[in-house]
Amino acid sequence: MNKNPNQSVIASPANKMSGTKQSPNSKDTSIRGLLRTDGIRTGSKSVLAMTVVAVALFSSCNTDPQKPGWAYFPDMAYSQAYETYSANPNFEDGQTARQPVPGTIARGVLPDNPAVDDEAFEKSYFLKKYYPETPEGYEAAGAELKNPVTLNDQTLADGKKTYEIYCMVCHGEKGDGQGSIVQGGAFPPVSPYSTLLKDKQEGKMFHSITYGRNLMGSYAPLVSAEDRWKVIYYIQKLSGMGRYQSQPADSADASANAKTK
Question: CA angle, 224 as apex, 220 and 228 as ends, to 5°?
Answer without folding.
Answer: 80
